[in-house]
């Protein structure tokens, strides 16, 4: 083994150690919800954003605040409401007067200029305000009055929406949903987890998470994960899964043809591969396997499928379609 291979192996060992330490520190505060924590951490390291869907009181806000504490990152919580304006989110130019009497416009950054941003109940804001997040999430920059302001360093958006109270809300458009690497469904905690939560929240003291490392370490881990190789056939398998979500494609799954109006975008394939590379590193492997792709398929694709009227009327879920895709395209290899 060459010195370069030895160095990469050492870096990947440190990657795993840092990830486990991050996982353990978050676990001091967040009870249960292992799948949600892991999905959020994988998306964070992959450089993507997360959409959390669940009823109130399941710890979504606590999770993102804990992440900010552990990463020694700046944190902002934005409560999305119908009267929230884009300027409340991204900032605006303010006319200031100097001591000498000179007046000039100066940009006052909004809460989006933080490392970790919680967009709470994002579907309650108007489309105009929702769209203010688009450029920031994709380009890591904000344009105000013709001037582009970059978002330096780590930028991670965790948005939440309540699936129960949908009246009076503004469902996220497809273009906005596509910016999220993962959509995670937050389940109700188990009885034993509720007992632990009560012990932690109704006693005189409650646990807290300490800062482990700086945000730049997450950026380093993200770049390192991208160096993991992926075989051409595994990459084509990921493409095949995405194409099987398109009803007009020749290898579309049965439920896709019946219930899907539009399938996943190419960003779905990107999400599959980036997340799979991280899973491979955590499993002490230096290559991506098909099982890695399959493990992240639901989180990466469920928000990228648009069901048709028949699918909505019959109560078909995107996860049902993805299950069918995984089952029927098990051995599919996409040939270009």
Summarize the structure.
With 336 residues, this protein is of the alpha/beta class.
Labels describing this entry:
Helicase, Ruva Protein, domain 3; 2 domains; 5-stranded parallel β-sheet; about 325 residues; two-stranded antiparallel ribbon; alpha/beta; Rossmann fold
Structural commentary:
With 336 residues, the protein is α/β, with parallel strands linked by helices. The protein folds into two domains: 1-227, 3-Layer(aba) Sandwich (Rossmann fold); 229-336, Helicase, Ruva Protein, domain 3 (Orthogonal Bundle). Helix content is 46%, strand content 15%. A five-stranded parallel β-sheet has the order 2-5-8-1-9. Strands 3-4 form a two-stranded antiparallel sheet. A hairpin with a 5-residue loop joins strand 3 (91-97) and strand 4 (103-109). The longest helix is centred in the first third of the chain and has 25 residues, at 3-27. The radius of gyration is 21 Å and the shape is globular. The chain starts with a helix and ends in an 8-residue tail after the last helix. 39% of the residues are buried.
CATH topology of the largest domain: Rossmann fold
Regions with little confidence, pLDDT below 50 for 5+ residues: none
Range of helix content: 40-55%
Q: How much of the residues is beta strand, in percent? A: 15-25%
Please describe the topology of this protein.
Elements: H1 3-27, H2 34-46, E1 50-53, H3 60-70, E2 75-79, H4 86-90, E3 91-97, E4 103-109, E5 116-120, H5 127-130, H6 132-139, E6 141-144, E7 147-150, E8 156-161, H7 174-177, E9 182-185, H8 191-201, H9 215-225, H10 232-243, H11 254-259, E10 260-262, H12 266-282, H13 290-295, H14 297-301, E11 306-307, H15 309-313, H16 318-328
Parallel strand pairs: 1-8, 1-9, 2-5, 5-8
Antiparallel strand pairs: 3-4, 6-7, 10-11
